[in-house]
TrEMBL record:
SUPFAM superfamilies, per the entry: MFS general substrate transporter
Family per similarity comment: Belongs to the major facilitator superfamily. Sugar transporter (TC 2.A.1.1) family.
Recorded GO MF terms: carbohydrate:proton symporter activity
Name of protein: Major facilitator superfamily (MFS) profile domain-containing protein
PROSITE patterns attached to this UniProt entry: MFS (PS50850), SUGAR_TRANSPORT_1 (PS00216), SUGAR_TRANSPORT_2 (PS00217)
Annotated localization: Membrane
Main localization category: membrane
Domain Major facilitator superfamily (MFS) profile: start-end pairs: 60-499
Catalytic activity: myo-inositol(out) + H(+)(out) = myo-inositol(in) + H(+)(in)
Membrane spanning stretches: 54-73, 108-128, 135-153, 233-254, 312-336, 348-370, 377-399, 405-430, 442-463, 475-495
Topology class, membrane: Multi-pass membrane protein
Signal peptide (from-to): none
Keywords assigned: Membrane, Transmembrane, Transmembrane helix, Transport
Amino acid sequence: MTGTVNEKSAQVTHSEVDATADFETKPPYGNLTTLAQAAATEHAITPAQAVRTYWRAFAWCLFINMGALLWGYDSQVGGGLLSVPSFRRDFGSLIDQQYVLAASWQSAFNSVSSIGGMAGAFSLGYISELFGRRGAVAVACLVSIVGILLQFLTPAHNNGMLLAGKLINGLSLGMFVSSAGSYCAEVSPLALRGITTASVNLWIDCNMSNGVIRGTGNRTDAYAYRLPFALQWIFPVALLVGLPFAPESPWWLVREGRIDDARKVITRLGGPTIDAGMQLQQIQDTIELEDSYAASARYIDCFRGVNFRRTVVATMVFVLQQGAGVVFVLGFSTYFFELAGFANTNAFNLGIGVTAIGIVGNLLTFYTVNRFGRRSVFFWGMLTCTTVLLLIGFISISHSQNARWTVAAFTIVYNFIYQTSIGPLGYVIFAEVSSAKLRSKTVALGIWVNSLFGMVVNIVVPYLVNPDQANLGGYVGFIFGGLAFTGTIWTWYFIPETKDRTVDELDVLFEQHVPARQFATHHILRSNSPSN
């Protein structure tokens, strides 16, 4: 997508599109003069101008991203329900005069959505290419409705049916998050691409599962846990109602040969003032450029040539998130508050406060992602999270009340740092580093890896922290601090800067094997000859 053709873009000098060094070693790829002009136009428009011109694209991206809210809701509602007395009564067994959920079943209940998410993300690569980005969201909505229905109707002590419902709903969660990233990257103009892709993480954080469980958990009937399940229906139903009016990705339409439909969508997204013809030509020429590099677009192609490097970056951002201890710190924030001496109710309320602070951090990212770039924010976020994790480990050596208060305070600090950096930036980077040709599949692989490592960490951390196991408590900060430090070094050498780079520019940078540290400064020379 490109910005409005204005005076700034008209002032692009020939020196910016001259020279042939970067393209003469390869055969001609369509009209590279158009790509140069389109890139100059995109670079000229500011985020504020983009919001005014492309407010429809911005609004539709936020709408499609709403499906990501269910990802966050499902991940938190599972842990919350384990503390609801009627849930333990209906799905546990009576031991020593109290209802207890089997540890093995708890592990299955917490991880089955991740297993479904892995399968859903993988299938998204095919579904999205077959039905389009909008069609893939519709499929995810239908799957989600069925999965939620099974959970809602599960009778007491039918634990298998409840797990089946969680598994099916997990399929939709993987599709929702993958679809959101692809859609935002292809519908947003360059100036808004970082903001809209970062809002995927914002929607994940904006779930209200803790508040819902707080409101229903004291009920003594089955609706103490059925109502939290049922409220999930709001979002797939709302998406299904709005999807017929949502624009399809023009990139997908062009690949399907629906050129007139793509032109109409581009005009609709940007209004009558934009140069729809140039934007359409940019998409066509970029697709031609990518087709010249690789003729097919299968999952195996994500691991061939330069696409392997792009896939590694797209998946590693989520490995780094898990390695930076997000599950350890945020998942056990309430536990740390209780250790600090807060009553259970107050600890729970503080947990809700931690979520609110995370939302504020996400909103700040809307500014920092364009002001400071992806690579620098991600790197400094990793470095700062490393520091906080190590501090939690060192402070935990002391068992004083002041030390416990300090650890509790650092969980709040950590959440703010995480949600202003590596949390939302992971969703920006993984959507931007993939080629347009393989975006749906690369994004799907990113979510697959995210689900896999999230599941592994969720299983391992309780064994490290719980008093009846390793009982390391805050000392786990040393483990994740070491992992985060290693990840910080990896970030410096391998995470590229994708800010202010169009799709075709990123293609060239990866094809030329430009080091990640030089992505922001490397000058791309374009041929200005009519034949090219």
